[in-house]
Amino acid sequence: MKKFLSITNKSLDELGVVTYKGLWDRALQDGYQGLSLCIKTIFTKSAENKFHAVFSTDDEDRHGDIVHQEPDLRAFRKNPVFLDSHNYDSIVHIIGKVVGIKANKEEGLTEGDVEFFLDNPTGMLAYKGAEQGFLSATSIGFIPLAFDEKTGAIIKWELLEVSAVSVPANIDTLFAKQEKEESTEEEANDAGDDPPAQEPAPEPEPKPVQQPTEHRASVSDVIAHMAERDQRQLKFLLRCVANMASEDRMGTKRKLLRAIRGAIEG
């Protein structure tokens, strides 16, 4: 019996459907019991064997929101398991539990603390992985309950479990740093192992100190200016900020993200 259909920003195209309601109907036809969604996760140590983590966000992908952060957590709070890779056919796969889970609709995220089961060797392995930075992805297993009639996006869902996973299904958030590192390596190879020594540049003449201007543009002013001139560039900025916002627990980048969305929709 199949468990969860892992959804990414390519799932609609791959299954030939338009909305997530259509995707869910297709998943049921194919024998799946629920959906899973993976995100890159930053584990922040909060106690001896507890780590704070964000498990889900409402960040947009190429097709719009995947899930709005209005989960039904009642059943999960009674059995808040943290599993190894969505395996629930044995208790040996329980590597911890989720403590204090909560959904924040305004900030668009669901978060909580993970307390690792250190008597389980796999739980100890996951604990060490989170502590040393080797474990960096989680996935939620859930059942969609309601869909937006206009967009077909998932607006209500029941959380079944949270899992640690080795490779997230949605890999977009992992590419930015990798491409930068590869680019740096290529530049180093082009330059050679031993770059020629250069004469020290002469010290520039001191420039006169400029007085600060009376007006400093706010973030809202910049976004409004971009909205008037180039919607395409603004949407590109939206995708970039969305990737950053998933790692921003203080909410600063998420507020910027909402300002950009408002400018596009307005």
Quick description:
With 266 residues, this protein is an alpha+beta fold. The chain has helices at 11-15, 20-29, 74-78, 121-132, 172-191, 219-229, 231-245, 252-265; strands at 4-6, 34-40, 44-45, 50-57, 60-61, 64-65, 71-72, 81-84, 94-104, 109-116, 137-147, 154-164.
Task: Give a structural overview.
- With about 270 residues, the protein is α+β, with helices and mostly antiparallel strands.
- It folds into two domains: about 5-170, no CATH class; about 220-265, no CATH class.
- It is built from eight helices and twelve strands.
Number of strands: 12
Major beta sheet summary = 10 strands, mixed
Spans of at least 5 consecutive residues with low confidence: 171-188, 209-217
Proportion of beta-strand residues: 25-35%
